[in-house]
Structure formats: structure tokens, C-alpha cells
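Running this now, will post back.
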Amino acid sequence: MNINIKDLKAKNLAIVEKMEALAASEMSDENQEKFDSLQAEFDKNFKSITNLQNLEKTKAEAEQKTPSRGSVARQILAESYGDYSPSTHTQETGWADSNGKPVMVYSKSDKMGAGGISSGKYLQGLITGNWAGADAERELFASTTTNLAQGGYLIPQSILCDIADKARNKMILQQAGCKVVQLENGPATLIRVIADPTAEIKTELENFSDTSPVFDKIDFKPVTIGCYVRMSAELAADAAKNLADTLEKIMTEVVAQKLDYLGLYGTGNSEPLGIRYADGVNIVPVSEWDYDAIIDGITEVQENSYSPNAYVLSPATNSTFAKLKDDYGRYLSAPEDVSSMQKMVSKSIDNDDIILGDFSNIVLGIRQGATFEASNMADGNFLKNGISFRIILRADWAVVRPSAFTVCSKNVS
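Update: finished.
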């Protein structure tokens, strides 16, 4: 049976309507399973749509010129896997899903999108209809954006990758060195090699030692994280000059703050499990803040054979350390062990806590197929001349090595 883009878009529109009905009801385990199944089906159709569009584009270009085999392969790789670029992605050896498929791992300098597209300009054009100075974004809108029945839109993955990259840039945990992986389905298990086999000298008739690689698994169960914003159509029109920057700022800052908080304080009860409540994390009781408390926390991590690279504290706690003085009233400098770590000041951490460690040992899993919806019909917007928009993504944190972190806290004894 021949598959065409129009039929696939119609299928996805029906799927979105079912997903919205589930999202509006009580999200029981059964409904969550149905939601994940529909999301997976939508992603599959969306990928097919993209591949068909790319195939049409490649055929058209092939009629105009005859590229080398290498350039065709590189183009197909880029367009099939969503803006892949060797210069912006890091494939970390030893990461795979439960089926053995390699998983892309992103560090703070890597980008999930290829760039060249502004999510702010795209959203501004989508909401206001003004595409001035946004030709690339307008072309992307025309070719890949799905209209929803209630007047909203389902936007392409490249825009969401741009939003994710900008949110990651504002996340203190990303700046501290956490890893990020993209998940293809709802619950996911990743396998990582944590120790390589070793070579040895064997004497005659003696057995080799068992030096097989040591594996561990990381389980992700993504939860729904969303942000809802509403404004008048008049304000959107009046603020057209800086609406693009404002939309990017709103979305990325809200998402970044929420992900940071969950990575630090998620309880694991209907939300991701963060560092503070992970089993095996080091705890250092503190009565008053001084550098001894941080040094004690560093020692706990080092005794577990890890090297702490960063510490997170609140603005108020940072102020306390900045005001520390010696007996002569001179401001104290941080000891070398403390100053050698990256200091991250954030409102996402409590004033009674400092969390430090090797932050490459916490991983953020972001599920593919996140959605952004904008509507002038929902919530009575048609009568009120309003515009509502929301971003919805699925994500989870995994604290890979809890003993690589220390929580210095006034709330424990």
C-alpha cells in the first residue's frame, strides 16, 4: 500500500485529538500507557512524513546536479536522524538502549539541533502571522507544521531541539557537567559500559582471568513537564519587535528552572528522582556555613574515587560565604579545593543545602516528540481576542552514581 504525506498527517491529527482527550482526563497508569502508545505512533508517522519530504527534496536536487556518493549519504544521514552534524554532537562510547542501539549522549558544549533556525522567530510568525525576516522559519512552517483541530499547531522537532538547546544553556546542572540523552519511547532502559576488559599475560596451560566488560543499566520513566502562557492578541501585535526574544526567554527559562529543581530535589514519587533523595548520596550535617563544610563534602566524594567538579548553592548562601571575614575584618578567600570547583548559584536550591560532586554522573533523558501548541480558539480566546500557547515535553533524571555527590545540609543531624 502506498503511503502519502497527506494520509500520514491525517492520522497524526486523529492521534493528537485522542492524546488531548487523555490529557484532559485523570492520568491513571492505564491512561498514561495509552498516551505513551499514541505518542510513539505519532513519532513513527512524523518520522515517515519527514523522510518522504526529504526524499522528494533529494530527488528534486538530484535532477539539478549530480552530487558525490559521499555527500548523498551525508545528506540522507542528516535528514533521516534530525539535524545530525558531527561537529555538534558527541557520541560517547559505551551507551546503548536495551536493544543494543547506540544512544547519542550530549555534553554541555553539544547541540541537539543543527542551528540556523530561530525558535523565537518561528513562534512569533506562528502566533502573529508576521514572518518578516524569518524566511527559513516560514518555509519550515509551511512544510512541516501540523494544524490541530482546535486551532493550534504541532511544531517540528527541529524547533523543539532549538528550544531544548537554549534551555540547556540556562540549566545550572548542564553547566555543571550533566549528560543529556534523547529517548525514543516512553519508559527506556539504557546500557552503559562502566569498565573495559583488560589484557593480561598468560603462562602456559593457565586460564585467563574473567575480564569481561562491566555493564550497568539506567532506567528512565519520563514524566510530562509543561508550561502554559496566555496573552492578548493586541499585546502580541504591539510587541512584535521583541516578541521572538520574549517567547524564547519565557519558555527556556521556565523549562530550565523546572528541570534543575527536579534534578536536585525530585522525590521519585510521580516525578524524577533527583540527587538529594537518591539512595547512596553522601550527607554532611552542617550547623553554620563555612568552607570546612564544603571541604568535608569534597572529602566524602573523593573517598568514593570521584573528583567533584562543581557545587551548587543559593544566592543567600553564596552571600553568606562572600561575607566571611578573618579576625582582622578581611574577607576570606576560598581554599584551593573549593575554588578549583565551578560555583553554580541558583534559586533552584534551598538556602540550607549545598550540593557538590562529579556532575557527569547525573543524566537527563529527554523524550523525542515534544509538542508546542498555540491557539486563538482554546479557553475562550476567540471571544476575548487572546492567544494561548504551551510547551509539553517528557523527561526524566537518572542519578547514575549517587556516591559521586554530597549534600551538605542544615536540615540533617
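The CA atoms of residues 223 and 394 lie 5 Å apart. More later if anyone needs it.
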